[in-house]
Amino acid sequence: MPLDPDAFRSVLGRFASGVTVVTLLDEAGRDHGMTVSAFCSLSLSPPLVLVCVDQSASMHPLLTAGREIAINILAAGQEALSRRFSGPHRDRFDGIGYSRGLTGAALLDDVLAILECTVVRLHEGGDHTIVVAEVETAAARPERPLLYYRGGYAQLER
């Protein structure tokens, strides 16, 4: 008997995850970014992370082209930033504070942590592509994370 997709989604929603915005600079020098909660560490040596991206996502072709990317891990209080990069927005970077990292990708202001990476492998995973990236640089701030849980945003209490 096949698993009911709604039941599966409901069960997986009980796994709290951090929220990231993955950014990159395309060949024409335009910024792109999208909210991603399917992110995790993969290896310490070499330093690898993975991001799972829906194959229908507008950034999918850019992420699977083997580019350099930045992973911005959002801090508590940055829900609006997450929503901006997850929904349809004409210019997601308009009015957003950011700087450029070593990769050229946008490093969003005031995030919890930043990882600058080079995409090194791709794996098919159902309707998603698993993007494996090697971390070139990383930095963190002493803040609390923004979490996603059961279809909504949450924060850790102190």
Q: Could you characterize the architecture of this molecule?
A:
- The chain is mainly beta and about 160 residues long.
- It has one domain: Roll (Pnp Oxidase, Chain A), CATH 2.30.110.10.
- About 15% of the residues lie in helices and about 45% in strands.
- The protein contains three helices and twelve strands.
- It has helices at about 5-10, 60-65, 80-85, and strands at about 15-20, 20-25, 30-35, 40-45, 50-55, 70-75, 100, 105-110, 115-125, 130-140, 145-150, 150-155.
- The strands form three sheets. It has a seven-stranded antiparallel beta sheet. Strands 1-11-12 form a three-stranded antiparallel beta sheet, with no helix packed on it.
- The longest helix has 8 residues, at about 5-10.
- It is globular.
- It starts with a helix and ends with a strand.
Offer a few descriptive terms.
3-stranded antiparallel β-sheet, 13% helix, single chain, mainly beta, 12 strands, Pnp Oxidase, Chain A, 7-stranded antiparallel β-sheet, 158 residues
List the helices and strands and how they pair.
Elements: H1 5-12, E1 17-18, E2 20-25, E3 31-36, E4 39-43, E5 48-54, H2 60-63, E6 68-73, H3 79-86, E7 98-100, E8 106-108, E9 113-125, E10 128-140, E11 146-149, E12 152-155
Antiparallel strand pairs: 1-11, 2-3, 2-6, 4-5, 5-10, 6-9, 7-8, 9-10, 11-12
Say how many strands there are: 12
How many structural domains? 1
Report the total helices: 3
Main sheet record: 7 strands, antiparallel
Query: Mean pLDDT score, rounded?
Result: 92
Q: Unreliable segments (pLDDT under 50, ≥5 consecutive)?
A: none
